[in-house]
Amino acid sequence: MIGSAQAGTGAPFAPPADLAPLSPAYDPWDPIRSLQAYGKHALTSVEFTVTHLCNMRCEHCAVGDSLTMAEAEALPIELMLRRLDEVEHLETISLTGGEPTFSMNTVNRVLIPLLKYARSRGIRTQLNSNVTLDYGRYELIAPHLDVMHISFNYTEAEDFHRIGFARTGREVGAVAAGRMYERMMDNARRLADGGLFVSAESMINYRTHGKMKEIHRLVGEMGCSRHEVHPMYPSSFASGLPVITKRQMLEAVEELLDARRRDMWMLFGTLPFYACGDDPLERRLLGRLAAEPNVTVRNDPDGRNRVNVNLFSGDVYVTDFAAVPPFGNVKTERLDDVFDRWQAHPMQRGLNCHCPAAGCCGPNLLVTDMYYKDVDFTRRSAIV
Ligand code: SF4
């Protein structure tokens, strides 16, 4: 496999040798694993929103509306650690923003303590970053981290300039954006060379669906261990962007599978295709995805095995679907209790299907809202 995120290699950012390597056979973020282990959905994954600050304003940003120019005081880290201690089946933690490394205060007082806590318990971690800032801050984090997750939707600096600053409300020069683009690629390469598992996520959308092969090639050149591919769903900043058809998405995935590097893990997520669907072409694609070596389709953690905690308000969200407001608050409640309440909610129960033969535990709310408004998935089953 490309990338050098192999345990025990002696590289500075390689994970400890006693941790199971992340691989197509071991993806602890996939809710199908906990569903199989416990016979029902269980909270195994906690995501923290650690900042609303960001140096970019990407046109597709799923949390764009919540980005700010100044930040309130975060809740005490001790409260977060206590709430994590209480989660009975905790396996993974994700840290997201904004750009989580935007402020060194966040790096030192939030990210590093949370990552050290996770490592001490053998809990696997992911940081969602644009890696466009100085390498020094990523170098501080990398020894404690399992997955550096970056967004990569570009074939050249001009794409990055056009997409990454679309919503700044001020002019960002092409030269400055070009320097950031080079630094992002250089940072990703250096982290991967140091043994860190770098996973680049690309969106299939109206801009990228014809360019996925070239984007994939650059992801490989950066030394990433994994290329993660999701369709773009129209929420927040993306809500006004043109939408592509399911057929265009299917073609983009087929093309990628034809052209992909066989030595790099490809992870697809939130695809709007299901084994219970009527379209034989879509079912054929699912069969191909299941049969290809080094390719996985991850069930969506949101609302399945994961909650999101806002580090400032303490609010707990069960999904990023706008129609579901915060479901509880860490100041007053255990996370397992909030999660149990969500499991009983009609909105969750309506999508709570599971077809073991297809390794599928149903669509998420964004996908159903966009493509399957009138479909009752609890009455369907996989055609395998
Ligand atoms: S689990 Fe749900 S969405 Fe997946 S194939 Fe079965 S019925 Fe369809």
TrEMBL record:
- This protein's UniProt keywords: 4Fe-4S, Iron, Iron-sulfur, Metal-binding, S-adenosyl-L-methionine
One Pfam family of this chain: Radical_SAM
Return the InterPro entries for the record: Aldolase_TIM (IPR013785), rSAM (IPR007197), rSAM_sf (IPR058240), rSAM_YfkAB (IPR031004), YfkB (IPR014866)
Specify the signal sequence span.
Answer: none
Q: Where is the Radical SAM core domain?
A: 38-267
MF terms per GO, please? 4 iron, 4 sulfur cluster binding; catalytic activity; metal ion binding
SUPFAM superfamilies the UniProt entry points to: Radical SAM enzymes
Instruction: Cite the NCBIfam families for this sequence.
Output: rSAM_YfkAB
Q: What is this protein called?
A: Radical SAM/CxCxxxxC motif protein YfkAB
Gene encoding the protein: yfkAB
